[in-house]
């Protein structure tokens, strides 16, 4: 076992759990709400409880194509007289008398008098106007969906705080609810900092790189119910950083920056935050993503992510995501992890909890996982090869082939 290096093991570093708890403690759900059409409600958080207004289905309807009749008449071999047809949207408005039946289609209203539906496969047609039953003894209600059997009028459907997904949209539509009251979208201002950064479409000069973080951030934010405010690339000068932060502190609920939060000379972000914000500069015992700034600037929460692109994505998954969930009034339960079998040895230095980019797959014995390649925090391409993180504990010095390791699938966090 290797000895922890001074660089890796920092007794003052926060654990991931401590950092997460501090962020969740600070970020409350927004208080303001707005009314939106159902078509725009996906991903939003309900601001008030909703109860069912009508029975769904509103009447007793058939669960299949067949014949509606009286349960007393379901005697194998009995012949019944066909009195009419009830189709979806076109009820038959007579009453089924003893010895009668009505042709009925799925979703059609079961006529008065009838209390069972026999499948069309269980009868035989007799001439133009009769059927013979090939089954009998059906109990009342057979193949019938009662009124309110999906949702009964007055049932509490959703609590305040419910996130609206596809199923909720369907339930609300089935109730005829066209508008709902949801929490306002958090406004999230984000920008990149660094004199080396060049916008897309411009050639690179000496020492320059393209600004990728801001585009990654915009893409990550797109799956949250937020109003994203892209402030572009901000130069590494105190005036430029101050101006951007002051504007964001007015306009936004949350400010996300990348770069300039490690305590280096050119990091004007740090200087402005120290002078005018209430921001803590954290070292978190995770890899990648050790330096991170969190606090407030103006009226907004502030999250200063590291500059390295893989650290940006990883701190977003682990620490920005809970902040966004909390502001949006969503459930903040930590993401689920699974166990997978390693198919190769992994190296690690003790000291930080490691989130290695990995490829998760299955074999005949279950989940298997391997490294996705380059594990340096600038190697964004391995992030794109990967579909999961292998999570190695802080004290771990690596893991061997065949060991079961903790895995965080990307679909839990991105
Ligand atoms: P910093 O935290 O500002 O010292 O940046 C750490 C590393 O991340 C440096 O190699 C930067 O060039 C790189 N970096 C910072 N911002 C970006 C960005 N927006 N896009 C791509 N790389 C970046
Ligand atoms: Mg920088």
Question: Could you explain the architecture of this structure?
Answer:
The chain has 414 residues and is of the alpha/beta class. Helix 3 runs parallel beside helix 6. The N terminus is likely disordered. The strands form 8 sheets. It has a 6-stranded mixed sheet with strand order 7-4-6-5-9-8, with no helix packed on it. A 6-stranded mixed sheet has the order 16-13-17-21-20-18, with helices on both faces. Strands 22-25-24-26-28 form a 5-stranded mixed β-barrel. A hairpin with a 2-residue loop joins strand 20 and strand 21. The structure holds adenosine monophosphate and magnesium ion.
Quickly list its features:
single chain; 414 residues; alpha/beta; six-stranded mixed β-sheet; elongated; binds adenosine monophosphate; binds magnesium ion
Count of helical stretches: 7
- Which structural class should the secondary elements be placed in? alpha/beta
Instruction: Output the strand order for the largest sheet.
Output: 7-4-6-5-9-8
- Give the rounded overall mean pLDDT: 95
Q: Which percent bin holds the helix content?
A: 10-25%
Ends: how far apart? 34 Å
Low-confidence stretches: 1-6
Listed once per kind, the bound small molecules are: adenosine monophosphate, magnesium ion
Largest sheet: 6 strands, mixed
The gist of it:
The chain is built from seven helices and 28 strands.
Which helices and strands occur, and which strands form pairs?
Layout: H1 16-26, E1 33-37, E2 50-51, E3 61-62, E4 66-69, E5 79-86, E6 100-104, E7 116-119, E8 123-126, E9 130-133, E10 144-145, E11 156-158, H2 166-174, E12 179-183, E13 187-193, E14 197-198, E15 209-210, H3 213-221, E16 227-234, H4 238-251, E17 254-258, H5 268-276, E18 278-283, E19 286-287, E20 291-297, E21 300-305, H6 309-327, E22 338-342, E23 346-347, E24 353-363, E25 366-371, H7 380-385, E26 388-392, E27 398-399, E28 404-409
Parallel strand pairs: 5-6, 13-16, 13-17, 14-15, 17-21, 19-24, 22-25
Antiparallel strand pairs: 1-12, 2-11, 3-10, 4-6, 4-7, 5-9, 8-9, 18-20, 20-21, 22-28, 23-27, 24-25, 24-26, 26-28
Magnesium ion binds at residues 193-194, 259-260, 307.
């Amino acid at each position: 076992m290797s000895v922890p290096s001074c660089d890796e093991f920092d007794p003052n570093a926060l654990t991931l759990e401590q950092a997460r708890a501090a962020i969740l403690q600070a970020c409350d759900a927004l208080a303001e709400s707005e009314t939106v059409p159902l078509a725009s409600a996906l991903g939003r958080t309900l601001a008030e409880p909703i109860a069912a207004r009508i029975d769904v289905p509103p009447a007793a309807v058939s669960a299949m194509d067949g014949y509606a009749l009286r349960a007393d008449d379901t005697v194998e071999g009995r012949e019944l007289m066909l009195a009419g047809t009830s189709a979806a949207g076109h009820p038959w408005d007579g009453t089924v008398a003893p010895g009668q039946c009505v042709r009925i289609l799925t979703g059609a209203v079961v006529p008065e008098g009838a209390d069972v539906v026999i499948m069309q496969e269980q009868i035989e047609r007799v001439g133009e106007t009769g059927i013979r039953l090939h089954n009998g003894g059906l109990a009342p209600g057979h193949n019938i969906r009662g009124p309110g059997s999906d949702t009964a009028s007055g049932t509490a459907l959703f609590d305040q705080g419910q996130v609206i997904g596809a199923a909720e949209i369907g339930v609300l539509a089935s109730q005829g609810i066209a508008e709902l009251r949801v929490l306002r979208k958090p406004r999230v201002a984000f920008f990149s900092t660094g004199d080396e950064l060049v916008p897309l479409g411009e050639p690179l000069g000496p020492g320059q790189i393209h600004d990728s973080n801001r585009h990654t951030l915009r893409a990550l934010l797109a799956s949250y119910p937020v109003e994203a405010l892209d402030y572009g690339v901000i130069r590494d000068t105190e005036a430029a950083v101050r101006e951007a932060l002051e504007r964001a502190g007015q306009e936004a609920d949350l400010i996300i920056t990348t770069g300039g939060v490690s305590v280096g000379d050119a990091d004007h972000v740090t200087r402005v935050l120290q002078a005018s914000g209430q921001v803590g500069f954290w070292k978190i015992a995770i890899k990648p993503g050790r330096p991170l700034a969190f606090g407030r600037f103006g009226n907004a929460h502030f999250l200063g992510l590291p500059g390295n692109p893989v650290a940006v994505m990883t701190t977003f998954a682990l620490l920005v995501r809970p902040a966004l969930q909390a502001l949006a009034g969503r459930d903040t339960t930590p993401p689920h992890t699974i166990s997978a079998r390693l198919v190769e040895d992994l190296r690690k230095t003790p000291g930080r909890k490691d989130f290695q980019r990995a490829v998760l797959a299955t074999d005949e014995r279950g989940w298997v996982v391997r490294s996705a390649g380059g594990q340096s925090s600038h190697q964004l391409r391995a992030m794109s090869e990967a579909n999961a993180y292998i999570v190695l504990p802080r004290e771990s010095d690596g893991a061997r082939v065949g060991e079961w390791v903790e895995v965080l699938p990307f679909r839990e966090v991105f």
